[in-house]
Amino acid sequence: MPIHPTAIVDPHAEIAEDVEIQPFTIIGPHVRIGAGTIIGPHCCISGETTLGKNNRVYSNAQIGVPSQDLKDTSGERGKTVIGDNNIFRETVTISASTHYASDSEEKTTRIGSNCLFMACTHVAHDCHVGDGVIMANQSVLAGHVTVEPGVIIGGLVGIHQFCRIGQRAFIGGFTRAVQDVLPYMIIEGNPAKCYGPNTIGLKRAGMSLETIKAIKLSYRLLYRSGLNRTQAVARIVQEVSDLPERAVLLEFISRSERGLI
Q1: Threshold 0.85, pTM exceeds
Q2: Fold held by 204-255
Q3: Fewer CB atoms < 10 Å away: N or C end of the chain?
Q4: 172 counts as catalytic
């Protein structure tokens, strides 16, 4: 097991045989690291943290560290679960889940597979990040944010607590998002606005022209028709082809608690 002699790895940590741990990195006692993973220098992985296979962690990253939530005073270890084939660039920070006296269910900060977290990005406590997400430099998620699969978040973006970012959405750089982001859409600005479907991203994802046309019609009914949300949803049900993507949009709208950008 290629562990540099200056690294501090707790003997109770579960480390696959081929994991590489570079100089001056600290691995806590409740950490599990899957095969093929490389941990760069000066990193800290702590808490009850599981990393899957073939992850790449660059220098000074902090994963599974205690949350920055001042209400989290229990002293209990937070939980972080990370999938496979992710890239965490320099000084990325991933906070562990919180524990409050009033908690009635187990909490976890959860990250899927095949994600890219560029330098200085931050995922706060209790966030759920899906597969294939890209976060550009210095973008940040506040606590309890859900990011669905295939989302791209531009540089210096801030996402407010408890927001949901729908699948295949694109958030432009410097955006301040304080409400939910509808799947498949482009969001940008401060205050943030919806500028229509993420057409290029949808094409790259292999969506058919029929599906993209249905998403565009849904956008026009929601944002350009002058209808209120209830009326627009009724028109979508009537006029948009009954495709899986339509169902995704309608379900997302029905579950939104913060309102839609």
Answers
A1: yes
A2: Udp N-acetylglucosamine O-acyltransferase; Domain 2 (1.20.1180)
A3: N
A4: no
